[in-house]
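Lab manual, section 2.4: Encoding a predicted structure.

Procedure: take the sequence of the chain (404 residues), apply the prediction step described in section 2.3, and record the output as C-alpha cells. A sample record is shown.
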Amino acid sequence: MRIAIIGAGAAGCFAAANIPYAPGREVVVFEKSNKVMQKVKVSGGGRCNVTHACFDIPELLKKYPRGQRFLRKTLYEFTPQHTIDWFQQRGVELKTEDDGRMFPVTDESQTIVDCIWQQLQQNKVQVRYGKAVKRIERSGEQLILHFADESIYSADKVLIACGGFPKTEQFSWLKETGHTIQEPVPSLFTFNMPKHPITELMGLSVEEAGVRIQGTKISEKGPLLITHWGLSGPVVLRCSAWGARELHDRWYDFKILVNWLGEITEQDVREQFVGLRQDMGKQYMHHKNPFGLPRRLWEYMLKQCGIEESVKWGEMPAKAQNKLVQTLIADEYHIQGKTTFKEEFVTSGGITLAEVNPQTMESRVVPGLYFAGEILDIDGITGGFNFQHAWSSAYIAANSMLQS
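Recorded output:
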C-alpha cells in the first residue's frame, strides 16, 4: 500500500506520525519547499499554541467562524484531551495559560516539531522536498501525482494537507479533480488606521477591552494592543476571524467602537464620576487615573477630550465629562486596511465541506483522496483552535486510510 501526503505542515506531518510502519506499506510526504512544519515553528511567537483547554465540545465549536457542523464529527473523534495525551505519551508536557491557550512547558515550538518528526522517523516515513503538485489523475485504482519537476508518483491513497492558499487560482489543480472551492479570503489580521494619532502609543496594551464592528453583530472582548499601524491583539484577531468575509467585501474599510474598560457600561462610568468628583475633587485628573489604564493612554484620552493638565476632578466641565465617557466606553475608529498577523496567516475558504466525509476525511468526489487541515473551508479564531482542527482532521484521515 502506498500513501502519499501532500504538504509537510502541521496536518500532513501529524497524519504521517499516526500511520505506523508496516512491511509493504510506503508513506511519502511531498513538500514543495525545503522545510517542514514551518507554521508550527513560528506560531505563538515561536512557542506553538498547540491547542486550547476547552474540553466541552459544544463550547469548542463556538470558536470556529466557519465549519462548525463539519467539526461536530471530527472534534468528538479527536479532542483537545486526545491532543494533550498524544504529546504526553511521547514525552511532551503541555501547560495551560490563564486565557486557556496551551503550550509546551519548554515554551519552544521546536519541542513540538521534534516530537512529531521523531514519530515520523519511527514510522519510517519518507519526506521529499521541492515537490510541488501540478495535477492529480486517476489510473484504475491508483491516483497519479504529477509534479512541477515532471516526476510522477503512483499512490493508493492521497492526503491533501498543504494548508490554505491566498488566491483562488492556486486551487486550480484541485478544481481539476472535480472539487468546488470556496473563495479564500484572509482571516486573523490586524486593523490599520493610517496616521491616526493613537498609533504614537504603539506598544501599549489593555488587558480587557471590548471591540464592536459597526454595522455588524460582531463583538469581542479581550487584550487589545496598539501598534504603529493601528490595533491588534487577541480581541482584534477574533473580530477579524468572525468578520473575514464581510470585511473582505467592504474592502477593509469600516468603523469600530472600542470600550477601553471591557464590560463597564456608560451608566457605571457616570456613577463612578460622581464619586470621583466628591472623593478626589482637589486632585489633578492627569495625575489620578482611576480605571487602571496605561498612564500614557489615560493622558492621551484627556488631551483628546480637551482636558488640560491643570484641571482637577472637581472642576471637570460637563461637556468634557460627556466626551470622556464616550471615549472610555464607545471610542470610534475608522479602519482602512489590514495587516497579516506576523507569520500566522490563516485563510477562510478552501475545499467545500459538502464534498468531504467528516467521519473519514475522504472526498465524496474522488475515492481514495483525503483532506486535512486548512485546505478545507474551516478556520478558527486565535488561541490554538486552528491547530486543533489540523490534529483532529489529520488523525481521522490517517486512520481512515489504513482501515480502508
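Check your result against the sample. The radius of gyration is 25 Å.
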